Amino acid sequence: MEQETRTARDAGAPVKIGAEAVRAAAEVLRRYRAGKQNLDRRIIDNEQFWKLRHWEQMEKAGEGGNPEDVRPASGWLVNCILSKHADAMDCYPEPTVLPREPGDRQEAETLSRILPVLLKNDRFRRTYSKAWWDKLKSGCAVYGVFWDNEKLHGLGDVSIRSMDVLNLFWEPGVTDIQESEHFFCTELVPNNHLVRRWPELEGKLGRGGAQVSRYLFDDKVDTSEQSLVVDWYYHTEREGRQVLQYCKFVGENVLYATENDPEMAARGWYDHGKYPFVFDTLFPEEGTPCGYGYVDLCKSAQKQIDLMNQAILKNTLAAATPRFFIRADGAVNENEYADWTALYTTVNQANLVIRHVPAMGLKEKPRAFCLGNAHFIRAYCFFQIARIWGDAPLALTGYESTAGDLYLPRAPKAEIFARIESDLTEAERYVTDNSDKAVATPAAVQMLKADYALWMYRVAGGGSSYLAMAEKAIEALNLSASRLESDYAQVFSSANKLNKEVIFAVHQANGEAVNGPGYYLGWNSNYVEAAYQNNPVPITGGNQWWWYTDRYKALLTSVEGDTRTKLTYNRADYGTTIKSIEWTEKGVGQMISGARIFDSDFILYRYAEAFLMDAEIKYYRKDYGGALTALGEITKRAYGNAAYYTDQSDVAVKRAIVEESLKELVGEGRTWWTLIRLDAVWDYNKDVADKRESNANILLWPITQESIIKNSKLKQTEGWY
What we know:
The structure is a single chain. Helix content is about 40%, strand content about 15%. By secondary structure, it is of the alpha+beta class. Among the domains are: about 20-65 and about 95-290, no CATH class; about 300-430 and about 690-720, Serine Threonine Protein Phosphatase 5, Tetratricopeptide repeat; about 510-600, no CATH class. The strands form seven sheets. A five-stranded antiparallel sheet has the order 3-4-5-6-7. A three-stranded antiparallel sheet has the order 2-1-8. Strand 14 and strand 15 (about 580-585) form a beta hairpin. The longest helix has 26 residues, at about 295-320.
């Protein structure tokens, strides 16, 4: 905002710029503002992406999906911008003035020595840094270059300031602002400040009503006691020379105008006759002086990354449900759990990343991050698909429209497993960063690799090479007691998120998920009397869907003092009738100000399971003593006894691995696969065992009729209808 530091000599001077003139100027400003609305919206939208608040913008555009879904936000775009800003500051310019002709050489050299001092005194490096943030985020930085009479103890000096583009207005359609008939700079100023500077404004300022584009903040910005002050620049002609005129007004009140100042009317505000603003554009664009920035280039990729991450939780809940513990009379939508749509949505998003990222010109680190995560997530999804449905469509092309062959037949599961292995190899190559457990890390890749290899060895009949692969993957994790939390409850605590035991998790902060996993693990308030709601019975807006069989409850409570029981199986009265309700404390979130917050991470892999896998590998190697030693880290935390199991017979060791898996991993969607690998599912699920002879595919899911209707190339899983 231009500072009015010159004295207006109004006494006896004709008033050319008055209320009528500023009303006309205000109408021009209104038209300029209307012509700039799209640019302002884009700048605000880009700022939201920079603040990782883009889900709100995506929802407005119809791209956010279900508002109740988890909305993760990775830092990929932010890291890109941080890197570019660092590059810019590493190349901080040193000004050099070149002579126009040989006679200017001495003057140019003098100015070359003066300018660095002037810029340093003006703290230009800070202004330059702010300008680069603006360029990267919105595509343009604007410098205001003013003369400040107050500098240097009243001698005056140049002042270079960073300007907010949202507060600047010019003629729509011009590329160079100097071609604009008018130029406006606006600022909201507290009324008391204005009255203190211009006492004549007392009683003339309104309340609120100021219309300005603003960035979006969490805190409410009160403008009720502020007024819009306008710096208005325009040109007049005098003796064939273009004269820059300046007027400062608020409402219809003129605070200063050069045309009302006899000493300034002919000369103009600045001798150079130009608007004192310099537009520094990153990527030029026709029809505007502003252009576009790196955020504009990165938004699409950021959306795809976060949409892909969003699908993980939904996919895991739908695909990894421990079906054998659901009560026969439970209200379960089987169609929902048999639907593979969410998994294939994530696969398609990963395919798009793999397809487009190589051509985006990214630096090596963000490129590797994107490709590594895409290959990892695609492998994870296909692993779920192949285990649940067996033969399935092998979609490897990213579709962005309905054009092309969207409808594929079921491919042999062997081909899917081969693709999983190939994706794991690519993920190993690209994934190197261990810093964020909410995305792929080397440990997460090795855990998925071990999981895959054990399945291939025991279920798919892939041979001993897969056992060696699993063994090598577990060794790469460098297992030790320090990998585990000493307190089982701390693994799942909302106050200890992404803790040292976690390998890979869907991470949620307060406010990210309206109905996270905990939403389905609490009781509806209709069932629980007020005095017992959240005291201790956890209530949600949904319904408890987690039930235990009597056999499973007996197992969870079989060892007195098992530190896991208080978390995995809770029971309490829910009313004055002295009846009890059961629930698990895993994933129920936390209470904040009397409200349940669904902020629990959904843990997909953790080190305790790696110990269980290690025990399973050693069991297959017939190293029964080694298997019990691996289990010892689990039992030490659970029972305070690392040597809890002593029987080293084949049957006893297998039973120990199975039962500790059931106790340790309850509610995490992992035990079903363990039971299948160890060929123990028949012993723990009577319904499945009874159909073993009549349906060879009893361990596979049928595909939904809806999927078959949509895709005529699909055939139902044999043995199902």
